[in-house]
Each structure stands twice: as C-alpha cells, then as structure tokens.
Amino acid sequence: MALDNEHHLEGVLLKSGVFKVYLYDAFTKPLPSSEVQQTSGNVQVGESESAPKIPLFVGKDGHTMEATMSKNLKLPATITLSLRFQDSAPDSRPEVFTFPFSHYIAADASTKPPVPMDARLLILFIYCCIFLGAGLGILNVRDRMVMQADLRLPDDGKIRGSKGSKRGFKRGEVFRLWRLHRQFFPHSSLRFSYMALWFFTLSWLVFGLNLLQY
User: What is the structure's pLDDT at 162?
Assistant: First the structure.
C-alpha cells in the first residue's frame, strides 16, 4: 500500500527477466490504463542508491508497468522500485518500494490479482448466511427431537432447559435427549439430520475461513 492510502501495487519477477508491477486503487481494483500511462518510475537491483536505474514502461495490457532485468539475475535479490503516481507533484520525491525475491515466477504463469473489496464483502455475507442457516437448522431439529421425546415422558421427566436461555440445555440433558429419542423413535431420521448439520456446520467453519483468506 502506498503512503497516500489510495494506491496498492504488486510486483512479480518473471523467468524472462521482466519485473512487472500491477497497480490498483484503494479497493484493489486495477487502475485504468489512462492513469497507468501517467505513472512513471524506475527500478534498481539491490537497495543501494548508486545502483543502475532501469526505466519502467507501460506493459502491453495497459494496466501494468514493466522493466527488463538481466536474465542471469542471481537470486535471492531485492528490487527497489521508485514510483510517481498520476497525482504526484512534479518536484516531489518518488515513493520507494522494495521487493525481496527468492524465486522466479514462470513466464507463462498468470498472477492472480487481489480480490476486490466488494467481492470480499459478498463472500463474507454468503459465509455468514450459510453459517447462520446451518446453526438455525441444528436448533430446529433439536427442538423437534425434544418435542417428540417430551410427548413420551411424564411431566417430571421432561427435557429440562437452562434458566439463562430458552433453547439452552442443562449439563447432561443433550446426551439424555439423544438416548431417549433413540429409545422412543429408533427409526427416526432426525438424529441423522442433527449429526449431518453439525458436521456440515463445523466443516463450513473451516472451509469458509479458508475461503475468506482469498
């Protein structure tokens, strides 16, 4: 992220010796080609100010900046990027970024740009909806099991809930519910649905968290 908090960039080093810079706005959307064309800068191998400066040019796609490095560049290496954005004052110092590289990226490999912020929010919304829906499904199936079991139990033996929560259980009541429901309704599919929903919810918790990292 640049110091102006309005630009974000990503640098990759290809096996062909090309250093490529991807430019994005604050919402990780690619900058328009018109703004990229008004961006200027150069790169240096290492972090010494006296290292030779290699100019950056606009890439063929119009959305990236490129500099041709030596194909025999010894890795690991650090590439120092000096960049002026479109709105930079003519007499201002360029902003400096450093990119440490330990390996090349294959020339035919396509880099994956960051997921836009609106897409991240949509993924988060879907994740929460599925997680909430699965949780409500667990509670509804459990309540049906309680209702069925209570119909077979005397008043003093019904499944007891927690005083602090209408849908909470006292310690040991969940296992008692499971045992009684299996006794009264040995062929009921509710218990399978209950376990399946728990398995789905826990699996989605892990998978969904991994999904949110993209």
Answer: 44
pLDDT of residue 168: 64
For 80, 153, 177, 187, the CA distances from 183, given in Å and listed in that order, are: 72, 12, 10, 10
Nearest to 42 by CA among 4, 96, 103, 105: 96
Please indicate whether residue 106 or residue 154 has the higher confidence score (pLDDT).
154
CA–CA dist 19, 142 (Å, integer): 58
Three-state DSSP at 26 gives: coil
Q: What is the pLDDT of residue 140?
A: 92
The domain boundary, picked from 101, 132, 148, lies at 101
Summarised one tens digit per residue, pLDDT across range 34-64 is 888 888 888 888 888 888 888 889 888 888 8
In this structure, the dihedral spanned by the alpha carbons of residues 29, 33, 39 and 40, taken in order and rounded to 10 degrees, is 120
Q: 24, 8 in Cβ contact below 8 A?
A: yes
CB 73 within 8 A of CB 45: yes
First-residue to last-residue Cα distance in the chain: 17
Interatomic CA distance for residues 192 and 176, integer angstroms: 16
pLDDT value for 115: 62
Q: Determine the structural domain holding residue 17 and report its residue range.
A: 7-101
* pTM as predicted: 0.47
Which of 101, 125, 153 is the C-terminal boundary of a domain?
101
